[in-house]
Amino acid sequence: MTSIDYQQTRRFKLKKFATEGAGRLIIFLIGSVVLWAFISAFVVERPDRYLPSPLSVILSSADMLYKGSLLSFYSDTLFRLVFGGSIGILIGIPVGLLLGLNRTVADMFYPLLNFFQSVSGIAIFPVIVIWFGNSDTTVLIVILYTSFFPITFNVLSGVRAVPVRYIQAARTLGASRMQVVRDVLLPGAMPSIAVGTRLSIGFAWRAVIAGEMLAGRPGLGNMIFSGQEFDNTAQIILGMVMIGITWIVLDHFLLRPLEADTIERWGLVQR
Amino acid sequence: MSGEAKLIIQDLCHHYPDEYTGESVHALEGINLQVYDNEFVAIVGPSGCGKTTLLNIVAGLLPYREGRAMVDGVDIRGPGPDRGVVFQEHAILPWRTVARNIGHGLELQRVPKEETRRRVQEYIDLVGLTGFENRYPHELSGGMKQRVAVARTLCADPVIMLMDEPFAAVDAQTRITLQDELNRIVMATRKTILFITHSVEEAAFLGDRCIVFSRRPGRIKTEIKIDIPREERVWSKMATNPKFTEARDEILRLVRQEVTVDDEH
Amino acid sequence: MTTLSKVSIAIQKRFGRQRLRKTILGSIPFIVLISLWELNTHFVWFEPIEIPPLSHVWEAIFFLQSDCPGFVAAFEGHYECQLSNHILSSLGRVVLAGVVGIPCGIAFGILAGMNRVVSGYLEPVGIFMNSVSGIAWIPLAIVWFGVGWETTLFIMLNTIFWLIFFNTMMGVRAVPKVLVHGVQTMGGSYLDTIRHVYFPGAMPAIITGMRMSLGFGWRALIAAEMIGGDSGLGFMIFVSAVEFKTEEVFLGVILISLIYLISDRWMLVPLEKWTIERWGLVWKPT
């Protein structure tokens, strides 16, 4: 195969990652930990309060793992994210599609969706608390709200963005309304569904953490918040690292590839 | 053509490690070349023969270790305004208007605004872009962008102008137009030019001398002089001029030799 | 033709028929919502404590400012001018964090992006720092700075810096090297390549970074004010929620959204148009 074809194969990319990417990653990780330990030990006064050493964070995590609390917090948070996020997305996609079908309806709802997309779930939070108190329901509603609007908005835009000539082409082949939706609009909206999903999960993830902090429900967010309350800075750092890693794994290894593959597969249509 | 050699290359060799396999690629071997004042030298050869590498070395964008390369008696050590380059992808800045792109060289040399404006207008008219001074590159066609690139390089008044397959990316019609225009510009400005192409027709049409490169490792296979005054280098006349057709056929034959040897592998 | 149709045609000509149509259609849902809101007040489907009357929300503005001695005093932050104080605090943090964070992010981003090796190593750093969302930094910031404006400012600054740094760095990296070569072969110096090539070339990425940092940063700021602040809009709505003063909460939420919409729509989008659209560039955000 030619040089260009070879570069595109998964094998080559994997090999490049293994030699270049993974090497860099390892250096990055080791370097960060060393820098961290250095700052913690020599630069900061009272490290246990302000910047605990990597070692104390590891010990703290081992301790929490042992007690089972770490896993329980983590699963609580993830459950809320997946549950709330999925419902928001599963409702959002059909709503976006339906609204997008008719030009007038779409034009009507576009500004409204755009508006609510910018009223963040966090700003909404106090309102929800007044209605439902500091409960799991509150956090769930906030997540639902946060994940619903980005995807609905994106899907609506995506459906509207399908070039008219594709619809016309289908019509000239004798497609009925239903068939146009199934064969042209739905595939045409796939890229925006993928993008909207990534956005929704992203916003929802931030909302989960904030919601747990604010409502005091058990989970990662609450873990780092109570770490601050009980002067356990190592717990805070542990939580932050877990949040960062979870998002990296979620975004770079799940959501982005999903989006890229979807766009590659369906992406004959601009978004 | 005066007797002064503007560009002197002696025994130039170049190797580089291949990005993917790590093996050493022998790009150039024993290049000896001189380009004289007001000459138009065209370098032609099969793909991968190292002609672009040579141009990059002369431009100062690629460091070399073996051999010598000098412009106006000074060793080449890096890019500079004495060796202007017209790139294949034109490389004009998308965020500057036509006028500001063309005047960029003068701006970098801190030439006063009034003079810059005057000279820029001169070159805009020379390349036939009058009226487009305030357009942005994305509003122009491929041929027009390339004209901006040529005007930009000319305006900076280099000692030698290096052109790296500048017309390869435009369609055939535009290419012919641009070639005619380049001749006109050369007549008007009397610039010294080193021109890389893989089109034999283009090399013979434009070049006073055509240097034929061998396939990798690039060596100078031979040199063909084309003794036709620039005023007569018009496509309508050239097609019937035996000096042109013979030279072109000879170059083609030589290049074919290099390519066919490749095919046998 | 009747006067009505004459007027109608004139309006359509002036504003553009499509734009007019979209504006009118788009406002219908809002009008419906507000009508439903008013109807709720009338029919009391939900208690006033859950959904306060529109008029109460409006009056809350004046109630909060009631002891405020005057416009000048409000501007200077007199302690009785509650609402304006909160607004000014939040906005002030945004401005301060922006003024410091954006240039720093751009400067470091350009320097890092110009060098392939450096940007290769800093890319994971940028990815990680942007993955720990601004909100997750709040408890740590409270440990370091205590509850107060330092925490909220830090959160906003942190969010802005890392987003702009990373976007700028990637944008600079994506600038075609041939453009740099073009400037070098005309005698451009190192500084010239930064000013004339890297910075404008990375502009789409920088502006995307600015829009993202406004969006994420504003949210993080509100959350920071709720959790670890002592002033600002976030603080105000949180405290009002605790005291069940729903009309103040509604007011706060509306103000929060309006500020975001105005800054995005009327500041950043025009900035985008003025640069990258004019230059014909498009950047797909990472």
Description:
The complex is a heterotrimer of chains A (271), B (265) and C (286). Chain A has 271 residues and is mainly alpha-helical. Chain A has 2 domains: 1-43; 53-266, Orthogonal Bundle (MetI-like fold), CATH 1.10.3720. In chain A, 87% of the residues lie in helices and 0% in strands. Chain A is built from 12 helices and no strands. In chain A, helix 11 packs antiparallel against helix 12. Chain B is α/β, with parallel strands linked by helices and 265 residues long. Chain B has a 6-stranded mixed sheet with strand order 6-7-8-3-9-10, with helices on both faces. Chain B has a 4-stranded antiparallel sheet with strand order 2-1-4-5, with helices on one face. By secondary structure, chain C is mainly alpha-helical. Chain C has 2 domains: 15-45; 71-279, MetI-like fold, CATH 1.10.3720. In chain C, helix 9 packs antiparallel against helix 10 (190-201) and helix 12 packs antiparallel against helix 13 (246-279). The radius of gyration of chain C is 24 Å and the shape is globular. Chain C starts with a helix and ends in a 7-residue tail after the last helix. The mean pLDDT of chain C is 86.
The CATH superfamily of the largest domain in chain A is MetI-like
H/I helix tally of chain A:
12
- Spell out the helices and strands of chain A N to C: HHHHHHHHHHHH
Distance between the termini of chain C: 55 Å
H and E string of chain C:
HHHHHHHHHHHHH
Instruction: Give the largest interface pair and sizes.
Output: A-C, 52 and 54 residues
Spatial gap, N to C terminus of chain A = 33 Å
Helices of chain C, by number, come to: 13
- Give unreliable regions of chain A as ranges: none
Low-confidence runs of chain C (pLDDT<50, min 5 residues)? none
Top keywords for this entry?
heterotrimer, A: 271 residues, mainly alpha, MetI-like fold, 2 domains, 12 helices, flat, C: 286 residues, 13 helices, 80% helix
What's this, in brief?
By secondary structure, chain A is an all-alpha fold. Chain A has helices at residues 3-8, 10-43, 47-50, 54-67, 69-101, 103-118, 121-132, 136-160, 164-172, 177-215, 220-229, 233-266. Chain A has twelve helices and no strands.
Topology:
The complex is a heterotrimer of chains A (271), B (265) and C (286).
Chain A: H1 3-8, H2 10-43, H3 47-50, H4 54-67, H5 69-101, H6 103-118, H7 121-132, H8 136-160, H9 164-172, H10 177-215, H11 220-229, H12 233-266
Helix pairs in contact in A: 4-12, 5-8, 5-10, 6-8, 7-8, 7-10, 8-10, 9-10, 10-11, 10-12, 11-12
Chain B: E1 5-17, E2 24-36, E3 40-44, H1 51-59, E4 66-71, E5 74-75, E6 83-86, H2 98-102, H3 104-108, H4 113-126, H5 142-155, E7 160-164, H6 172-189, E8 192-197, H7 200-206, E9 209-213, E10 220-225, H8 235-238, H9 242-263
Parallel strand pairs in B: 3-8, 3-9, 6-7, 7-8
Antiparallel strand pairs in B: 1-2, 1-4, 4-5, 9-10
Helix pairs in contact in B: 4-5, 7-9
Chain C: H1 3-15, H2 17-43, H3 54-64, H4 71-76, H5 82-114, H6 116-131, H7 138-145, H8 149-173, H9 177-184, H10 190-201, H11 203-228, H12 233-242, H13 246-279
Helix pairs in contact in C: 3-13, 5-8, 5-11, 5-12, 6-8, 7-8, 8-11, 9-10, 11-12, 11-13, 12-13
